[in-house]
Amino acid sequence: MTRPWRLLGRTVAAVTAALLLAPGAQAQLGALRLLGSIGRPSPASVQPTGTASGGDLLQLLSQSLDQIDEPKEIEIGRQLAAVLLGSKPLHGDMVLQAYVNQLGRWISLHSTRPNLPWSFVVIDDSGYNAFAAPGGYVFVTKGLIDRVRDEAELAAILAHEITHVTSRHHLVALRAKAQVGVLTQLVGSQLRNNLGGWVSAQMLSLGRNLYSSGLDQQDEFDADRNGVELATRAGFDPYGLAAALQQLRMATPDDPLFTLSLSTHPPAQQRLDRIEVAMGDRLDGFAGKPPVPLALRLAR
Fold it and tell me: What's the structural domain count of the chain?
């Protein structure tokens, strides 16, 4: 049997999840919550009770990860999310935002940390990429949305990013960068981002460095493997990630739409090979469901 990991042009199926079709107002407003929570001014002189300043967070990052509890993790993620939104705005299609947020939240319910304040949003960028920040912030680009072929591919990508968050991969990477002196690139206490919030200059430097260099390759392989299992538990075709990776495998490094994604991740063929070894044929019984085009979801 030829494994679907290697089949170019395979149509990847996804389960019709009834909860994704429910109109739940809270889920639809979840994407918009970022505008308020990230953009809320929080000057150092008026720090909310229980909220760490940029300097406090950076001091934590230079110490043991055991000292970063969940509230502090969420605050670090909030600042890093502000870095991302400071460079690229949210996409203006609120129907699309509601759908992606609802889909991501459904998948997160099947993760090891379902109670994080998960938010999933689309940023207005033509490149093919996805990002996450500690505490449950997940971003996908409009360029990625335009290029995934069905819901199973998008679900697999979201599951990959969710796994980065649940495994605290970004915190590990941030701690390593803090310890090697990335923070000396900028000196100052606060910078104002274009959403009206406050992000420490050091955190701004650290976040930009992290998202331009990427995570450890082993973390990417782990997020692939565990993301496939998470997407499958949530009811989606297990070969969605393999289909999405085929696009990266065929992309050229000089294609500006794929440059950042290719430079911050292991080669796509290596990722496909690792998934094949890890998964074997044990998820084949969950494959072969009818594909669900994103246009079908967005038309409802």
Answer: 1
